[in-house]
Write a structure and sequence with these properties.
This protein is mostly helical. The chain has four helices and no strands. The longest helix is centred in the last third of the chain and has 34 residues. The radius of gyration is 25 Å and the shape is flat.
Length: 114
C-alpha cells in the first residue's frame, strides 16, 4: 500500500447540519445562547401569554364549529366538531400536566439552600 495515499473526501459537504451545531456555517441557524444577548428575543411572559391564547382558541373551537354545524354551514361536518373536541381535550390535558410540572419545578427551586 502506498504511504502517500490520502482519500479525497469532501467531509464538510457530507456532514448534515444539526440543531446543536458547533458554529460552523450550515443552512440552519445556530441555537447557541443568542437569546441572552439579543434584545429582540421573546420574553418568558410573552411565551406563556401566547400559550394561554392558543389554549383558549383550542378550547373554544369545538363550540364555534358546533354552532356552524347547527346553523347548516355546508363546510362544517360533525366529524370536524369531534376532531376539534379531541384536540381541545388533548390541549387541556397537556396544559394541566405542564402546570403541574411548573409548580413542581418552582417548589424544588424554593427548597434549594443558597
Amino acid at each position: 500500500m502506498n504511504g502517500n495515499y490520502f482519500p479525497n473526501y469532501d467531509l464538510s459537504s457530507r456532514i448534515a447540519g444539526a440543531k446543536f451545531d458547533t458554529g460552523i456555517s450550515y443552512s440552519m441557524p445556530s441555537v447557541r445562547m443568542d437569546g441572552v444577548n439579543n434584545s429582540e428575543a421573546v420574553s418568558f411572559k410573552q411565551v406563556l401569554g401566547n400559550i394561554a391564547d392558543n389554549l383558549n382558541e383550542e378550547i373554544n373551537a369545538p363550540d364555534n364549529l358546533l354552532k356552524d354545524a347547527m346553523q347548516g354551514n355546508k363546510n362544517v361536518d360533525i366529524h370536524d366538531v369531534m376532531v376539534a373536541m379531541a384536540k381541545s381535550e388533548i390541549s387541556v390535558n397537556i396544559a394541566t400536566q405542564l402546570t403541574g410540572k411548573v409548580i413542581n419545578a418552582y417548589d424544588r427551586i424554593m427548597q434549594l439552600n443558597i
